[in-house]
Amino acid sequence: MALIGPLFLLGLLGIGLPIWLHRLETQVTERSPFATTRFLEPARKRIHVQKKLKYLLLMALRIAFFVILALLFARPVFFSAPEAVISEDTTHHVIVVDTSFSMSADGSFGTALDAARSIINSMGADDVASLYSAASGVTGIVPVTADAAVLSEALNGLAPGNGKLDLGVMVTSLNALIEQSQANFVLHVISDFQQSGQAVRFADMIPNVINGRPVSLDVVRVQTQNTPNFAVDSVLVTNRTTVEVGIRGYDSDNSERTVTLLVNDEAQQEQAVMANGTGITFAVFDDVAFAEGDNRIDIRITPNDALPGDDERHAVFDNSPPAPVLLLTADPESRGVTYISAALETAPRGYEVISQNIADLDARVLQRYPWIVIEDMGAINASLATAITEYVSGGGAVLAGAGESLLGQSVIPVLDLGINSTALRRESRSPITMIDNSHPALRESAGWGMVNMQTLPVAASGDDRLLIAQAGDRPVLIERAIGRGRFMLLTTALDNTLTDLPVKPVFVTFMAEAARYLSNENLLIREQVAESFLQLSRSGGASGQVYDPDGNSLLSLSDTTRAQDIALNKTGFYRVITPAGDVLVAVNPDRRESDLTVMDAQVLQNWQNVVAGTAGAGDAALAAGQETAVENTEEQEIWRFFLILLVIIVLAESFLGNQHLRVRTGTL
Amino acid sequence: MSNAQPSKSTPQTRLLDPSVLASMSNLELVAKAVVEGFVIGLHRSPKFGFSQEFVEYRQYTEGDDPRYIDWNVYSRTDRTVIKRFLGETNSHLMLLLDTSASMGFGSGGTTKLQYGKYLGASLAYLAARQHDAVGVMLFDDEIVEYRPPASKPGSMQGVIHILDAAQPSLGTDINKPMKRFREHVKRRGLVAVISDFYCDAEELLENIRPLAMHGQDVIMFHLLDKDELDPDIKQSTLYEDMETGDAIEVEPIYMAKAYREKIRKHIRTIEEAANGIRADHVLLNTAEPLDRGLHNYLTFREKRG
Question: ipTM of this predicted complex?
């Protein structure tokens, strides 16, 4: 605590006033000699003691009043100081322990903890240290402290996780975490230093000159040799009955491995393969029986090696039957129907396209389909337009094309968008200039630039979301929300009359993604890397509930009402409950963590040298850094608390003083 | 009961005012000033023996002061006779002065002990002037000083010297000193007890009664300070007993009512005890002049003479 206006402390002399007044008052009870007290009554002696206590309390309150008043004027403030006292001569040991997946290899993490303890025990008397764990990100474990016991105790709580360490990311994170300190830094990085952990750019591994202080790098290697390892590298399901498993060997000799396939926790097949020690070997399981819907696939290889965690891999296979899609067309034999059907039926999810002649359509069948495709909006008559509007408003979805039949019309049905038909041939053949990649239907947008198309000159309204546009913001793909449903309009034909889009690869991708989006199927990525985030917003709307591989629910009831991002810290299967049904997500460690090839010693030496050189250049900024540190000390004025205390004291003094005066009046 | 009465300040009585006497350092001078002033105030009344009028000759008897033998008669008749004047009694006066700690109390310039010294010295001077033998005893809970009565030249100075040296000492226990005094006293005479009589009345009575039964005439000068008689405090006061050291805080309202009643009752009890043994009780306020005391003494002496 400090005082902003210490001169006001002179006001403390004011406490002499109540002391003097009370001395005057208490003089009456000083001893006076008297010839004899045999005729005096001592009955009021107890009252005298009580009164004396009241006097003392009253005096204390009055003194406190002056003290608080003086302090109020002196403006006391608290400074939020760092936990440990750090001066320019202090050495700050930043201890970073690698907790990535590869550290669970035999002996690595134990060696790392021993090395950390050794650093802590060798700290000087004036040294401070902070402890961090590093994997996919850097986590502060113990803030700056000089207490070695606290640091050692914290080490016991560390364990290797499932993340991947990137040294560039680690250094960048540390820059942000420890930039406020003004000590001399020694950055101890305790790791197995996998080659795969090296940053893409070497410069990313150089810490900033932290606050102008000298920084030195201490590389503590827990592994100096490459460790042989086999891992399940990939799981691929083809033809709905075949599982292809990739076994990758790292710096190993060729050896026989037994590969076991489990589907939904039941072992189905087992194979012995001679695994390539320095490459990939495939094992193929045929005639695998999958249940309908999501299937859990576990692949295990035995015997285990130094890193047993990657001897198992999880995958999810969606064995749902093809979903029916209604395709409205004026001519079921047209090329457009062929293109659309082919694209949808070859999509990974698989769709069964049911083409329906508009002339024969009973509009009530629309309600049977979660979404429909309209080949050409020009074929939609007024009554069908009304039915489609009702269908969409009720929650349906439509993907529609604008064929040549619209050229003679001035308005697109359902959407009521105006068309400038005369401008079609003159202005429409221009390149695509904008694609909204954030839209779920356009995540795979590569290839749109190769498409030649003529588009209808549609004037989009304010309610429409422009997803793809040509030069001059001419709409190519727009989306409009109608009631509870969605309507996507492609302003060109879905055959190859106005565009070559149907014969481009991007058409298949687009149709698959649009189908997933419009059918309200989940858009979750079914295989994720550990310590990444599951973006539940992609499942559409609220989150629903999420269960981790151990069956624990991760969201509270209130959290389930809004979209969340869930950290995937465990390997295995996460179960996500979405509006469209339960979805499984397989989580595995990053494949690169399985490669236990260590960084070259010379690279590490160069890293240390470069860090030391950079730090030396930062010495000139030392003074400026100190000033910054002082400015960063946050003042917290506490006059409000003193003011409240003052009010309480004044009230108490008034009450007690009044009581005391009442007693005196009665005795006179 | 004899109550302390406020005195009128005349030129004569002003000399007897304790505050004036306190400015005199010589106790004999004080006594002389008091007595001379007092006598002037009496207009040389023959009643009290201050006249030089010749009364008679009487035969010299053993024990008479030889100074008073009329040698002219002896030369003519060869008989030793004593020449007597009006007012002479040829008796003994024994002064008993209480020197306990409580006698050291005084709210004004004069403590009770000082007042008692003035009174004792004045009585001694007055007695010597009337050719009476004078003795003195100082006591607290023991006999502090004792001088038997004598009428020889210098006796009065010796008494005054003892009185002058008196200092307040310990607490009062009248039993022991009075018992020892009774052992010393042989001859009938007059005993003047000067004290604040902070003792039990019964106890006092038990000690004075034997003196009266042995033919002693006892006069009790009861000295009290004006703050003891009429305390006037405005706020709570913590009083410390000068003899025991005990402290008691008292409220003004108590001192104004209950205390006064108690001290009056105590005075009345002492007075009644004195009356019971035919002793005289004189209450003296130490803020008042000494003439009341001297007047009471002479009246008492005249009655008993």
Answer: 0.76
